[in-house]
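Checklist before submission:
- one chain only
- standard amino acids only
- sequence pasted in full

Submission:
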Amino acid sequence: MKVGDRVRVKESVVVYHYPGHRNEAFDIQGQEGEVIALVNELEGKPISANFPILVKFEGKFKAHLRESELEVL
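Returned file contents:
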């Protein structure tokens, strides 16, 4: 998986920061978006992020996800 790939959430992932459903549980399974960053370093030092893939969905919604939760389209 690399920056620019179109992806779909293949597993049930519940978020609480989805626009229009703020502070409510919202399942993003089936949503499609674009990988905009791979979080593997901070200030030039390697890190091991729990959710290393940053995906931008429709509108202003972004989420950090695991590779196992996504499928490349």
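Reviewer check: The domain at 6-72 is CATH 2.30.30.50 (SH3 type barrels.).
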